[in-house]
Write a structure and sequence with these properties.
Elements: E1 4-8, H1 13-24, E2 28-32, H2 41-51, H3 57-67, E3 75-79, H4 86-96, E4 99-102, H5 117-122, E5 128-131, H6 134-142, E6 147-150, H7 167-173, E7 175-180, H8 187-196, E8 201-204, H9 214-217, E9 221-223, H10 229-238, E10 239-244, H11 257-263, E11 268-271, H12 274-279, E12 287-289, H13 292-303, H14 306-323, H15 327-338, E13 362-365
Parallel strand pairs: 1-2, 1-3, 3-4, 4-5, 5-6, 7-8, 7-10, 8-9, 10-11, 11-12
Antiparallel strand pairs: 6-13
Helix pairs in contact: 8-13, 11-14
């Protein structure tokens, strides 16, 4: 019988990708989405952001416990965890033993208001806390974390695999320089500068009409965020250059785009950071810049060199696979860390693993 995982997290976006990756690895996965307990997720998000899920902890605990299937689970995996409070974590540990948390955001920063209030209360209760930023390691340990694993974010083997692109796809999704992402205050001036420099820019994402620079950006905005896997993958593949912008409030040195774009054989054009230059060889596997003027210059250079674009796209995907920054690899690292006696009991992936090129994981113990 396959090992079983109780997966508590959103049944959408990259969280859903991770649940599917667990299943591909051969695990029996039962998903409980705490946000599904509420009629309007957006209002819950606002309440969580401003009030830290105040008054919601017990409601979520009762509904999660009521939906757990009558079976035994080898461990509980919590993705994110803004709605998961200490009382629920303790009950899950009592029933199933091991509970780990993976958080792709920066719950120790101030960007997200009070969103992570419950998460921070649970840090010392999880058997393993998995983070994606170096700075989060010491912050988690200072909060009493028992064990901390630092990983890179990751792309998904299926959702971010290259598609067959037709001429119809190119007519629908084709762009020169593309950014897919939400407006943030620092992004408006940057994009306006690119447009002023003559960069043929296209933007998909929400809240861009809030930008002070909206008058300059309006003609480049193509629509709201793309949340369907096929649309998202094809728009990235059909772009000649894909911008990878960081969230300063999240203290990013890389983002999910840093892995999804290369996985789809796109040209990643991102801010030059220590992580980006560790992950990819500059101007061979990724294109990097330090300010909007350098970004504009690099974009125009790449747009005028088709062979360079194709070379970078192919090389970046190969490097992404060699780096093992894919969901199945990252999740396997987590499971091997928290339950070493269960590793490789389901599926042997050694035949498809490429040699490790990066010291990707930094493991610290409390």
């Amino acid at each position: 019988m396959s090992p079983a995982i109780l997966f508590i997290g959103r049944d959408s976006g990259t969280s859903r990708h991770r649940a599917k990756a667990f299943r591909r690895l051969g695990y029996n996965v039962s998903v409980i989405d705490p946000f599904s307990f509420f009629p309007r997720n957006r209002l819950v998000g606002l309440w969580t952001w401003h009030m830290g899920s105040l008054f919601l902890e017990e409601y979520v605990r009762r509904h999660v416990l009521a939906r757990i299937p009558s079976q035994t689970f080898d461990l509980v995996y919590v993705d994110g965890g803004e709605l998961v409070g200490p009382s629920l974590v303790l009950e899950l540990k009592r029933r199933f033993g091991t509970v780990l948390n993976y958080n792709i955001d920066d719950p120790f920063s101030r960007r997200d208001g009070r969103r992570w209030r419950l998460y921070l209360q649970c840090v010392s209760l999880y058997d393993l806390v998995v983070v994606v930023r170096d700075c989060n390691v010491s912050e988690a340990l200072n909060r009493g974390a028992r064990d901390v694993l630092r990983v890179y974010m990751s792309a998904d083997e299926i959702a971010h695999s290259p598609r067959h692109i037709t001429e119809e796809d190119r007519r629908k999704w084709g762009t020169e320089v593309l950014f897919v992402g939400t407006w943030m205050p620092e992004r408006g001036p940057f994009m306006a500068r690119l447009i002023q420099s003559g960069v043929p820019l296209s933007i998909y994402g929400c809240r861009w009409d809030r930008a002070r620079e909206w008058a300059a950006l309006r003609s480049s905005w193509r629509g709201p965020g793309l949340y369907e896997d096929e649309e998202y993958a094809k728009v990235l593949q059909c772009a000649k250059v894909n911008l990878g912008l960081l969230s300063k409030g999240n203290r990013d040195l890389s983002t999910t785009r840093s892995f999804e774009i290369p996985s789809l054989e796109g040209v990643l054009c991102a801010e030059r950071t220590s992580e980006h230059t560790e992950l990819y060889k500059e101007d061979e596997e990724g294109v990097f810049w330090s300010d909007p003027d350098e970004c504009a210059w690099k974009c125009m250079k790449i747009l005028n060199d088709k062979s360079l674009r194709e070379k970078i796209g192919t090389s970046s995907r190969l490097r992404c696979l060699k780096n093992r920054t894919m969901n199945e690899d990252v999740l396997t690292e987590m499971l091997d860390r928290v339950a070493p006696d269960k590793k490789s009991t389901v599926r042997d992936l050694s035949w498809q693993r490429l040699p490790r090129e990066l010291p990707r994981l930094r493991i610290l113990e409390a």
